[in-house]
Batch of 2 targets.
Target 1
Amino acid sequence: MKIHIADGESFEAEEGKNLYELLKKNKIYLTASCGGKGSCGKCRVIVKEGTVRVESYGKLTTAEREQGIVLACQSFPEGDITIEIPIESMLTVGDKIAVSRTRDLFELLKSYKADISPLISRIRLTLPVPTLDDNISDLERLKRGIEEKGLVLEYPYHFVSNLSDSLREHDWNFILCYQKESNTALSIEPPVEKPCYHGIAVDIGTTTVVVYLVDLCDGRVIDVGSTYNSQMRYGDDVITRIVHATEGGGLKELRHAVVNDINDLIRPLTESHGIDPEGIESVVVSGNTTMVHLFWGLNPAYIREEPYIPTANRFPVWQARDAGIKIRRDAPVYSVPCVASYVGGDIVSGVIATKMHTREELSLFMDIGTNGEIVIGNKDWLMTAACSAGPCFEGGGIKNGMRATNGAIESVRIDPETLEPEFKVIGDVSPIGICGSGMIDAITEMFLAGIVDQKGRIRDDLKTDRIREGEDGLEYLLYSGETHDIVLTQVDIENLIRAKGAIYAGASLLLKEVGFTFDMIERVYIAGGFGNYIDVEKAVIMGMLPDIPRDRFRFMGNTSIAGAYLCLMSEEMRREAERVASMMTYMELSTKGTFMDEFMSALFLPHTEMEQFPSVKELVFKER
Amino acid sequence: MKIHIADGESFEAEEGKNLYELLKKNKIYLTASCGGKGSCGKCRVIVKEGTVRVESYGKLTTAEREQGIVLACQSFPEGDITIEIPIESMLTVGDKIAVSRTRDLFELLKSYKADISPLISRIRLTLPVPTLDDNISDLERLKRGIEEKGLVLEYPYHFVSNLSDSLREHDWNFILCYQKESNTALSIEPPVEKPCYHGIAVDIGTTTVVVYLVDLCDGRVIDVGSTYNSQMRYGDDVITRIVHATEGGGLKELRHAVVNDINDLIRPLTESHGIDPEGIESVVVSGNTTMVHLFWGLNPAYIREEPYIPTANRFPVWQARDAGIKIRRDAPVYSVPCVASYVGGDIVSGVIATKMHTREELSLFMDIGTNGEIVIGNKDWLMTAACSAGPCFEGGGIKNGMRATNGAIESVRIDPETLEPEFKVIGDVSPIGICGSGMIDAITEMFLAGIVDQKGRIRDDLKTDRIREGEDGLEYLLYSGETHDIVLTQVDIENLIRAKGAIYAGASLLLKEVGFTFDMIERVYIAGGFGNYIDVEKAVIMGMLPDIPRDRFRFMGNTSIAGAYLCLMSEEMRREAERVASMMTYMELSTKGTFMDEFMSALFLPHTEMEQFPSVKELVFKER
């Protein structure tokens, strides 16, 4: 019996097992908060050919059933079948390319000369065995031993409840685990020859959630998982999420959504590496201020109302059980500190990942996620601002948009003569959709080929079958497959221009406010989940990046997860993140009268003021 | 319809309600961990006359049913009935005499010049309202305000999770509750004109559990509840309990038993005073070391094994949810510190209740509970030791023994001519049983009247119907009622002599060890649950108390609960308790070769060495 994934691989399957299990065996992981018990309704797949025996449709609507949608965990193939997996159902786990890209992180940590010092500290203790003459209680004996090492700790109930047996089991010779930030004793462990501890770094993006499974002893990223943030069903950006949170029960829904996403990723990550989830002993989360609030279930309402106040920017170190993360119950969870309501821990992470705050040179940091955030400064000062770009570079709000994972078109060339496209797909498989870097390429190539004009309008007077009328008006056909097409629609292009316009306008205004111009910037760091390599030239032509010498740009990938990794590995990095958060001065752009002008001017390809883009001006004139 | 309690009151009852409810309405409280849902099987009563409709017998055995035992919460009277309530089923709540005896406690607190400073501290805060210019996060704003008051706190997840709404609800003007010992923020409250907070002081005795409901603002004891420690079904003394704890699941059983007892008492105490149990915001427990370990679910096994090590003597302040006490979840629970495995917080409580550690004079403190503990010393030093007395002075192991509550015979006179007894019953009701003070009276009167000899044997050659053959050999009939008799058996007398012998031998040996004799003691403090006033003269004649001038004796009642009350009310008293615990030097008597000799000599009335009891010697010779 064979299972064929539409536009993807095929594999042999055992009979009598459900689709969720069969896919998992072949390392295709579906989201399933319930672990495949039919209750969460998330592991949806579409049966395209063949039949499956369905035990339960759960809460699927009639309309959904008619489309062939089933819950994988409730469906048993009866012979060869072909299925399609909607991207919302996919977890990306075990992506070797993604893991290989993490190799430099440990080097980055070393470049800070930071020790390995995770959230749980350990000391070896050997206590004198009690006698009639030295008969103090077990807890007092332990305290005495700990105080001799210069430590004063708190002893929570959970720790003491099993203390007497633990001490004797280990013959008064053991390792004490404690949490330094909260000065709390956590547990007693046997001394081991080759210690091996695991932690997870989490980037909670508005659109995507990324989890790194990390070996805390050698700093190796064992594996990487990512998925869409399921909060997306409640709104695309932070503002709509905040609005949802303030509606009855909304906060709980949003919290559960993202916590389930993280748990969903932890399950296959640990399973496939034979690691007990209980052995995951620390977590660092990095995200924008609203995401971190929603993760902890804190009311984000006041982030949105003037004077824009979050519950916290610095979060105490709480525990996995407080967060609802299904690992060791008392695992400390550190949140990378935030700066203000609209500049969060993801940006603080970005700064420490770039090290811009350690250098003399003037740098600009741009995080092109669903929120666009900008930081400018050097080792002496840091200014920051935010502008809402929307989720399109991460695949949200774009008809065939997707994250930068296997099957995503990541680069595009369009022949200016034939208007025919060529493209590269991540993982060299059939394309499923298009990711941020592909979109930047596509729109720029369409502009250069004359398919769209400076205002981003698709021309309807060109002789090509590639331009056609679609559901959302005109669209450009990038790929036509057996089961689906991949297009870029007029609406997609308008969204992309608004997104790049917001980013450029934000950076431009922040620079003006501090009295600089783009050409004074010595280094531009670009971060974001739009793909891993964007073509600078094209991003400049599009008007997203400033028209300055191309060698000043550095692509950093996901710096939020990089910062989370650094904080997971080292106490010095946590202190560094806190120092950076204090250094950063937030500027509220939306209250500046000039922001709207800047934004409107940027809603062109590349810009209404062509003198800001001299090299593009030259190129366009040359091409025409 | 009338309900008649055998040998007690009668009252009118509504139809259609179960017996548990009907009794409760008349302020007769039965133990019922399940709250009257038929699942705990504790609210047993015996139907003597009349019929009840039984909905369920739960786990009652056939033999039990045949005796007329029913579960009160599952039984509906069908007409007039007479029932008997076994003392194990009784909670004593709302005992006005018990409450009136607590009146001096606040005076005692004042005599220490101690402030009222319960476990939860409060400060009034008014924070500046956030503005665009002062836009730090809520948590940072709160911290700033708190730090201005000179405090540095930890902020647990639970506290922060609702912070933003709380601050705004109270318009930035509120009271912050925090726990000083653990430096932990607990909650935010509206400012109130007339604050009213409640706490409970708990004495966990091996045999009885006593709870004081206290108004934390004025120090008033609102009400008192007491019940048998249900751990009794697993053994009479600490050793048998420890043995049970080390058997599969035993520790859990013992823990639940005592925690349920406390919860059982809290329910009627709060209900009858219209207090929300969630409003009970702090707890102090005082008990011997084993009892405190069992209360917290800590393995007591190593208390019993040489070198006799408890898990802890000083317990961190943990929370009600850790303990399983059904009040405010994060209510701090303070355990009065213990000294050693066999001298616990109850004795430290005793010392601070007597103030012997503040005086020049040499004092002896004797706690005559199930464990006999002795302290000797003054303001400069304190020595302590323990000897197992057994539960008989609290009613355990004595055929008609009971606690000193309503219905207990508390004093006895026996006419030496007729051998007929006269007695006084607590509450002036028909007698149900005999409490410790009554037993001391009875045995001494029997000795003086010649009913028992110096070895405690009941004589069978006397012309009286009062002496008869019972199930356990000879017995003396104190009271003959319609439904039951009250007797003192040969076995009871042997148990009482062993108990008083252990106490006297312990005190005697401890004195010898420190080089003193009884006549050098300027003050003897007697504590214990044996009754409220024991007749010193008779206790001396019996050989329980030393034969020294009678005006040196002070009866203190339950000093364990008194110490718990002091610690509940004031931080200074908690520090005082800790200081006293450190001052006390424990001496292990059981390892002294001479203890057995001392004990054997004390197994007579009053003692084998009559010269230790000169006044008794004279009296006995005069009488004969």
Note: The mean pLDDT of chain A is 92.
Target 2
Amino acid sequence: MFSHKLVPNISVDCVIFGFDFEKLNVLLVDRELKDEKTGEILIKDYTLAGYHIYEDEELDAAAARILKDLTGLDNIFLEQFASFGQLDRVAGEKDQLWLKAIKKGFSERIVTVGYLALIDNTKVELHLKDRDVKWFPVSMVEEMDMAFDHKAIFYKAMEALQKKVKVEPIAFELLPDYFTLSQLQKLYEALLGASFDKRNFRKKVAQMHYVIPLKKKQKGVAHKPAQYYLFSREVYEKTRKGKISFII
Amino acid sequence: MFSHKLVPNISVDCVIFGFDFEKLNVLLVDRELKDEKTGEILIKDYTLAGYHIYEDEELDAAAARILKDLTGLDNIFLEQFASFGQLDRVAGEKDQLWLKAIKKGFSERIVTVGYLALIDNTKVELHLKDRDVKWFPVSMVEEMDMAFDHKAIFYKAMEALQKKVKVEPIAFELLPDYFTLSQLQKLYEALLGASFDKRNFRKKVAQMHYVIPLKKKQKGVAHKPAQYYLFSREVYEKTRKGKISFII
């Protein structure tokens, strides 16, 4: 399909978020380099899901390819949030060692386009077997050893996500088709690092015409089964049309 | 200062907006190519303000350099809004002719990082003498002949700007330090392509604690001099702190 000739100095990196009904997680890839002779581990840390683009591949297509490879999923919420071109972004000692070992000739200036991906966790689990890819709670990232400037890219993605969920209904991308209001509240709490009063939260949700109550209820739960809701983008768009709002 | 060795396949393009108290304008650069022998004009159209990055130059620095060159201004509101890597973005016949004539060897895949720049028109006018650079009303762009994918980049920038002014107080970057409420209303109308009722608009503004009335009034105007206001980012940030809002 592609020429498989990579562009040496342009890559994409995906910051893939998932929600497990308790906390927000990010998908990271193992990076390990062993000394060929001694077997000694020279590098062991984590990277975002990224790679160089092919010469005949669009940026969005490259990001979608990487996501598909890792998760088996198509049609995921995937959006650019920033590009990164810091001069020293691949200049670290470990990173130079890695680039020299793995990608000969790629040790120069690399500009990467950052993508934000939001995944419904319940759909992806099965595809992650036997891959050096794992979900980590976002709260763990600070203490993790990460490649290149990937920690900085992750923080920038978190910031973009937190801004975005306040003004666009993208949080729903992290939920399954049917969800309970407790799940929705937990999601917003995880996204914004806040905790909300249950009654106030439900009052707010009652004003969101596009969060629609269903007759369906939870099954097989120990507690009183909660009602399911769904998000309708169509209702969102129709009810927002013509609304002009300012920041106040 | 820089090595002046350009990166052939990475550029930045600035979509520079200004407001003349009546309408929103965009700064465009003339592109003209003449046949060396006959003097016949081969290309005559417009481009955004952009160029390749230097090998030892950060993306933000490249955008700031281009802005400084064109407008003489530092410390302008300047923010990435998207990157563009479409396969055919420099493939047009005119564009290939241009690249071959002007930038030998730069005819291949070029990814460009788009920057949004907001300028206080009253500060910039003097610096534009003798340059092939001009303000054009944004409403004119549709009918203009533009280089590469610059029209698409412009539209994407408009979209980003319209989204952003609703959630961040960046519109004020387009105004001088002191402005009247009529000027502010005209600005929001120009930005959002809408018209507002004067009384409702003023009610909204009265709720923005960060738009602060001054004792100062307009001078030398034919009509009744209007009161001046200023925008305080400090007040904005202090009054927003801890506010958690959702889209409703």
Note: Chain A has two domains: 6-171, 177-240.
